[in-house]
TrEMBL record:
<dbReference type="Pfam" id="PF14529">
    <property type="entry name" value="Exo_endo_phos_2"/>
</dbReference>
<feature type="domain" description="Endonuclease/exonuclease/phosphatase">
    <location>
        <begin position="35"/>
        <end position="113"/>
    </location>
</feature>
<dbReference type="InterPro" id="IPR005135">
    <property type="entry name" value="Endo/exonuclease/phosphatase"/>
</dbReference>
<protein>
    <recommendedName>
        <fullName>Endonuclease/exonuclease/phosphatase domain-containing protein</fullName>
    </recommendedName>
</protein>
<dbReference type="InterPro" id="IPR036691">
    <property type="entry name" value="Endo/exonu/phosph_ase_sf"/>
</dbReference>
<dbReference type="GO" id="GO:0003824">
    <property type="term" value="F:catalytic activity"/>
</dbReference>
Length: 309
């Protein structure tokens, strides 16, 4: 249905005629690079196609998400314009927030982000980045703070040792984010990070000083970032494929494929039902699972004749 309506709008624009969509489904939004100019969605000029879209939106009682932000950077002259339009049913307008991404991400069009306010970011357990640890500082702090005398007067030496060691690790070993903005990708390395950083830097310089030289530099760094990321993906995939054998579980294969694509892993358990009670905290869930496993593995489950034998 979405494709039919979208192509119908495009057809009406090409034929320079108005087409009524009386039976469009509710709770629908349309997004397209329609190349239409109209001040209604932030364009500085207007054309015939923009007038057709304006009449279509007014006739069907639809709403436009656009807030006037630029959505396109012309690769030839470096000018900005708003030609990417997001149209929705009125019932959806207040349920989502619309914004233009601040980075072109290697394209000529800025990505459009539609966010639902009730969608909370999935948290994950932070992991130590051992390859980026400052081991020299870690060793020096351990020698200075982990003294044998300090354990003679404390009530729980093991707890004290773990607390001090964790504190040292927090200061010397970086961690991954608990609330990542983007899914982690196994192929994304320091070279990709540097290339994308250079691309963003050149883009900011062009935005501040839109000269021909800065536009040319931005194109160069954008092409370099594309090439670097493409090569990293190819190398990561070849390395993974070379390690696949006939005994490799299919689950592992598909998990790796999804990671390379940038898809999130399966969500962790958020709640556990215990009879009529609903456990929501991770600690309660872990304790209940441990209690269940212990009960299932208990010797009390053995038959009496088995115990005697």
């Amino acid at each position: 249905m979405f494709d039919n309506i979208f192509h119908l709008i495009q057809l009406s624009i090409k034929q320079n005629s108005k087409t009524s969509l009386i039976n469009y489904p509710h709770h629908l939004y349309l997004y397209g690079r329609l190349q239409c100019h109209n001040p209604l969605w932030g364009s500085k000029t207007h054309n015939a196609k923009g007038k057709i879209i304006e009449d279509f939106v007014s006739q069907e009682g639809l709403c436009i998400f656009n807030d006037g932000s630029n959505t396109y950077l012309h690769p030839g002259n470096g000018s900005y314009s708003s030609i990417d339009i997001t149209i929705c049913d009125p019932s959806l307008l207040l349920d989502y927030s619309w914004r233009v991404h601040d980075d072109l991400c290697g394209s000529d069009h800025f990505p459009i982000v539609l966010e639902h306010p009730f969608n909370s970011a999935q948290q994950r357990v932070p992991r130590w980045k051992l390859d980026k640890a400052d081991w020299s500082l870690f060793e020096n702090l351990c020698r200075a703070e982990l003294q044998s005398k300090m354990f003679e007067t404390v009530q729980d030496p093991i707890l004290t040792f773990n607390t001090v060691l964790t504190s040292i690790a927090d200061r010397t070993i970086p961690k991954t984010s608990a609330n990542p903005k983007h899914p982690s990708k196994p192929w994304f390395d320091d070279a990709c990070d540097q290339a994308i950083g250079d691309r963003k830097k050149s883009e900011r310089r062009f935005n501040q000083q839109p000269t021909t030289k800065n536009l040319s530099n931005f194109r160069i760094f954008r092409a370099k970032a594309r090439r670097t990321c493409r090569q990293a993906r190819r190398t990561s995939w070849k390395k993974f494929v070379s390690g696949i054998t006939s005994r490799t579980p299919m689950t592992k294969v598909w998990n790796m494929v999804n990671k390379i694509k940038g898809k999130n892993s399966k969500a962790t358990v958020k709640h556990l039902k215990d009879g009529n009670n609903l456990l929501t905290s991770e600690k309660d869930i872990a304790n209940k699972l441990g209690e269940t496993f212990a009960k299932s593995s208990s010797c009390n489950n053995y038959r009496e004749d088995f115990k005697k034998s």
